[in-house]
Amino acid sequence: MSSLWPPLPPKNESEEDKAARLAAEKEAKRISDEIDRALEQEKQELRKHRPQTKILLLGQAESGKSTMIKNFQLYFCPSSFHAEREAWRAVIHLNLVRFVNYLLYVLSNTASGSGGKRGDPNRDYRMFQMRLAPLKQVELSLTRCFSSENSPVTSPTDDKPTLHTSPAQEVTVRGGMGWKSFIRRGRSQSRVQSNSSELESTRRILDACKNDIVALWKSPAIRALEQEGVDLHHHSRYFLENAERVADINYTPTPDDILRARLRTVGVEEYRMTMETAAEKGAEWVFYDVGGQRSQRASWASYFEDVNAMIFLCPMSSFNQRLSEDRSVNRLYDSMELWQTVCRSKLLSKATFILLLNKADLLRSKLRAGIKFSDYVIDYGRDEPNTTEAVANYLRKEMMDIHRVCSPRKRQLHVHMTCAIVRRFIDRGLAMSRQADQSCRILP
């Protein structure tokens, strides 16, 4: 069918038919122009009536920005949060199978899985490899559901991950692509049935592999991997520890499951939330979650203007980690330098600053495991306590000093220690955001 408009006149068209056709085309153009004008007017009205609150989330990659957004939605917009469970179930299943496939890959390349130096602590490894082989296809199918129609789809083990550094790489989606509706409906009409069929198939396969996934995680080989120094403190570990429930055919994600699900965003993601809670009911908040990788930070400045509040997340647990983009740079030092840059910005001089010292739970786990904070942060005295409270107080002081010295003018700063997946911690950050909103409304 031709896409030309107006269409070519039919052959042997009579004068009467021609007049009728031209009249119909004129009416169609009139309606089209009216629709265009209405859309433009709606757009102009939206620009005039800006949302009451505009919040910018900043921080390096994997600092917890996306999890913070989910907390805001759960706290202030619960009905829309629960409406997205289906989309998050696919993300959770992808997190689980990527981690399982990563473990199988690591086992095939270490003594723990091959029966080398350690005397084969897991003699059933080959059985696991065979019985869990369908998870490779599950991973590819789920990844395809998140990808654009022409994007290449690969497994994380195709990139030969480094065994003793970070576990399985995350799936990445581009900001603004609307992946949640993508999962529910497909990018185009031709993919609707395909997506639905693939998701149903992956759930059946996961349910069939459920007992073997549980057995793999409990096997001696996995414990041996930890003894060999393989880092298994991955966000997907939670789903593996709960595999019997998560892989079940009737699984429905809980709010805690959704908060722990991970899907890396590249670029800027805009979230518009209409508040449902009593104090803010009907108000619209706009959140901008900008990409935290070094290559994406140059685009941040364009989102700094007219911001009511800026939330900066500093992952405290990153003190013994390196940037994925530059392995020579300590992640905590990079976060502090990034904070310094943000504090100096004149475009944010009137914004309320909220600093969240995030990932307190992971920091506590590392310190209790005997990892010394002073071994990685030379300014922290070796005689200082290696406790969560002491380290958090040190970082609080350092970050507040940076804010005081670098800020172009005096402004409010709220600092809290948080864990973006623990409600009692995150409530403090949410309360500060509410206060920032209220104070911004009365500012001239």
Decide which structural class fits the backbone.
Answer: alpha/beta
Shape: flat
Residue windows where pLDDT falls under 50 for at least 5 positions:
115-119, 149-154, 162-166, 186-192, 439-444
Task: Tell me what portion of residues adopts beta-strand conformation.
Answer: 5-15%
Give the overall pLDDT as a whole number: 78
Order of helices and strands: HEHHHHHHEHHHHHHEEEEHEHHEH
- From the N-terminal CA to the C-terminal CA, the straight-line distance is 58 Å
What does this structure look like?
- The protein has a 6-stranded mixed sheet with strand order 4-5-1-6-7-8, sandwiched between helices. A two-stranded parallel ribbon has the order 2-3.
- The chain is flat.
- Strand 6, helix 14 and strand 7 form a beta-alpha-beta unit.
- The chain is built from 17 helices and 8 strands.
- Helix 14 (331-344) runs parallel beside helix 16 (388-406).
- The protein starts with 14 loop residues before the first helix and ends with a helix.
- By secondary structure, it is α/β, with parallel strands linked by helices.
- Helices cover 50% and strands 10% of the residues.
- It has helices at residues 15-48, 65-76, 78-83, 85-107, 111-114, 125-131, 134-146, 179-185, 189-218, 220-227, 237-241, 243-246, 255-260, 331-344, 360-368, 388-406, 423-442; strands spanning 53-58, 172-174, 264-266, 268-274, 284-290, 309-315, 352-358, 413-417.
